[in-house]
């Protein structure tokens, strides 16, 4: 892993936090979270609603006024979201935008003029038991800025931000986000580094598992040191967990206000937009998840 980049989010300092809403309860939680986060960062908030064409409005059966028919309820929904945001952050600079198109596409375009994109894990669609809506799947990992996916139920949180750390370069921007966030909120960072013996039958063939754990911990500590020095005012703790990273991070998420992960990890498979750990925690975490893409 290289030295920490000087300020990975420096060029985004004045772009607004963008939040997508479809008017559902899940999206309203996202609007509340985004408003709080915009206040914390001293950034404006832009609330976006995408109006999709009616399902039967296609080239063979065009419905010429499809968008005009849907736009008024879209505007109403945005007015409501704006009130919710203003309640959360009196004095907050809030704008709203009604856009025509598929929500995932619209929010990906919006990300080009955003400091981050906030979404609900669920919206008004979906099916019982669904863990992550299609918009989260279409946006997280696809855009350059961090994407925060907020869950409907508030976390039972300690004053703690969890960062997933696999000692790869891809963890760098995620660590930066976690430390910045902890500094802003006055919270501590728990850096969770999950490790597993390379083969399941290690003990059988006499592998020195304690030695292995110590080596992994020493290495992780060394890689973390530049971050501790740069954020000397932030309390940080390294936790080595002998488990699959998904289990370790989900467990840690039950005590956190926010879980931060990179879009890819050490085993990056370049064709995949999101690594398997990021994908799994987006679906299963118990608190909001920020996915931070490596630059
Ligand atoms: N039309 C939209 N405009 C803007 N943001 C949207 C829109 N629809 C959804 N979103 C955002 O995406 C989040 C998740 O909604 P999503 O549509 O992915 O899930 P869903 O409605 O439960 O299931 P489905 O994927 O079947 O639609 C919402 O909470 C909201 O933040
Ligand atoms: Mg939906």
TrEMBL record:
Residues of the UspA domain: 16-151, 161-293
Gene3D superfamilies noted in UniProt: HUPs (3.40.50.620)
Pfam family, one: Usp
InterPro entries according to UniProt: Rossmann-like_a/b/a_fold, Universal_stress_UspA, UspA
Family to which this protein belongs: Belongs to the universal stress protein A family.
UniProt protein name: Nucleotide-binding universal stress protein, UspA family
Organism, scientific name: Microbispora rosea
Lineage: Bacteria, Bacillati, Actinomycetota, Actinomycetes, Streptosporangiales
